[in-house]
Amino acid sequence: MIAVTGATGHIGNVLVRKLLERGENVRAIIIPSEDIKPLEGLDVEIVEGDVRDMDSLTKAFHNAEIVYHLAGIVTILSGNDDFLYQVNVKGTKNVVNACLKNNVKRMVYVSSVHALKEPPHGTVIDETCNYDPQCTRGSYDKSKALASLEVLKGIDNGLNAVMVCPSGVIGPFDYKISQMGHLIINFMKQDLKAGVDGAYDFVDVRDVADGMILACKNGKCGESYVLAGEQISVQDLFLELEKLTGVKAPSLKVPLWLVKAVSRIFPLYYTFTGKEPLFTSYSIEVLNSNSKISSDKAINELNYSPRPIKESIKDSVEWIKENIDF
């Protein structure tokens, strides 16, 4: 039996699909009253559990040989630091302890490249970069770094675990609409009136799921594996979306200095309008951060093989057109 926390999330539901394709028995751990549409029609055992509740995890992991821990809060907004800590950090600590208590044979934790200490521009980001909560960009990054350290503590106590660190995730089966999903939808609705400078590395959600399965099978206990894809600029992303959708890409580009100057009011704007945040001071910093990310270790040790970014963008657009009413 394989247990998956965060099974209804973007990576989670794709991982479940991949595991089922391999003939595995899968137990999806979901929080009470959670929308299970991403798992509809899938032959999975659904069990309620909350990473903040150790007892529920102990029961949920009963007889599980493998646990994939994906449950967590992802945000580009500031605030809610305590909630982030309770779910991402203490929640991961609870998962680790529940695995130890149930003698789980293998745990795979989904960390993030944002949890790694970012080196200067021009320097490669890889597994040699430490998990350093004091050298992170924001509350989310810090929580993922702290959570990764909790997994390392569990390994010191006898847990057989590996960690994977995806870059920005994109791809189909985006039921809950990720930040990249919202960006694509807003582009298609012609709600994006201007572009910004910047670029980042994006990886296909299906490749992340494959990488996790490979890490479970071939990864060395205690090791981390960066799962990156391909770097693309905001401008090139918009031009690719223009080709795929027929919607004209914004011709106006807002200078970086101006974006930074007004980014402090973005949270108020998103709160007032109720819209999903796309550009915040954090996301602008990320788009202009070092995104020279290497997956060489995963490629060489796990046989990880990410697909071209243009394929991922195309499949994302097609899936959104077929499945999302906007």
Q: How would you concisely characterize the structure shown here?
A:
The chain is of the alpha/beta class and 326 residues long. The protein is built from 12 helices and 12 strands.
Overview features:
326 residues, alpha/beta, Rossmann fold, seven-stranded parallel β-sheet
| Helix-residue proportion | 40-55%
CATH superfamily grouping of the domain at 2-173 and 201-230 and 292-307: NAD(P)-binding Rossmann-like Domain
- Low-confidence segments, given as residue ranges, are none
Widest sheet, order of strands: 3-2-1-4-5-6-10
Q: Span between N and C termini?
A: 38 Å
**Count of DSSP H/I helices:** 12
Mean pLDDT: 89
Round the Cα radius of gyration to an integer and report it: 19 Å
The major sheet is characterized as: 7 strands, parallel
The CATH class name of the domain at 2-173 and 201-230 and 292-307 reads Alpha Beta
Fold-level CATH name of the domain at 2-173 and 201-230 and 292-307 = Rossmann fold
Structural class: alpha/beta
Quote the beta fraction. Answer: 15-25%
What is the name of the CATH architecture of the domain at 2-173 and 201-230 and 292-307? 3-Layer(aba) Sandwich
Shape: globular
Number of strands: 12
H and E string: EHEEHEHEHEEHEEHEEHEHHHHH
